[in-house]
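Database export, one record per block. Field names are fixed; values are copied verbatim from the stored entry.
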Amino acid sequence: MAQETEKKFSLFYENDKFELTTEHFVVIDSLKSLENKSLYDIHIKGYTNSVGEEGYNLELSRKRAENVKKELREFTIISSKGLGQLEGETANNRRVDILIHLKDDHVSEEGEIVEQPQLEVAEPSIANLVTPKRGDKVTLQGIMFYPDRDVIMDESIPALQELIVFLNKHPYIKFKLIGHICCGDTERRYLDLKNVRTGKDNLSEARAQSLYNYLAKNGIDKRRMRYLGMAYRYPTGKGDEFDRRVEIEITSVE
């Protein structure tokens, strides 16, 4: 790397997909294995081909770029963007380009956004609430939903089991489940996103309700819990993957 000004890696996608694949992680992991990451800058640019509506393609390209950025936060990221569609239906246009160069070779551009490295820090978990008290609030790590739906993914089962164990261990607490979304309208943060399963504009609330129903089916008394959706009112400022979440807040300890 030190012998070249810049190197480009491209990740290619199936039509209408933005999730990372095993092939993508081969490239990403090779970059993450670099020593002295502080010496490098990374630029991430997402694209689609011209199949479909322009607005949809712009959002799809943004999701592709965002997923790649999430995996490379140990580097300095310069202006990670989804740039929408490239003309033509060729599969080569469905891609994310990762450009990496030495910081000393960086040429600043007007309006660029520089995101400093984020070292991985363990997020608080429900298991940390050894003595829960009123007002405690924790993001439920590991509880994941299918994109744009209120359906809990099977991969969430270990986290769901951990939550049930915690609630059974502390039978006297009452709590609320709070759903949040990413990518909302910054001018109208109260607007929720569409739940494509039902067609209703209540995705954050529907995800919290889905978890509520799961807990009820697994023996948690409904009188202990309630749910609500907060749409985009409280973004974390850490990126989409952190904004897309469900929290638990202890409302009383009897």
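Remark 1: The radius of gyration is 21 Å.
Remark 2: The domain at 126-253 is CATH 3.30.1330.60 (60s Ribosomal Protein L30; Chain: A;).
End of record.
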